[in-house]
Amino acid sequence: MLASGNTSSHPASFILLGIPGLENSQFWIAFPFCVMYLVAVVGNIIILHIIRTDHTLHEPMYLFLAMLAISDLVLSSSTQPKMLAILWFHAHEIEYHACLIQVFFIHAFSSVESGILMAMALDRYVAICFPLRHSSILTTAVVVKLGAVVMVRGLLWVSPFCFMVSRMPFCPNKVIPQSYCEHMAVLKLVCADTRVNRVYGLFVAFSVGGFDMIVIGISYVMILRAVLRLPSGEARLKAFGTCASHICVILALYIPALFTFLTHRFGHHVPRVVHIMFANVYLLVPPMLNPIIYGVRTKQIRDRVIRACCGKDL
Question: Where are the membrane-spanning stretches (predicted)?
Answer without folding.
Answer: 27-50, 62-80, 100-122, 134-158, 202-227, 239-262, 274-296
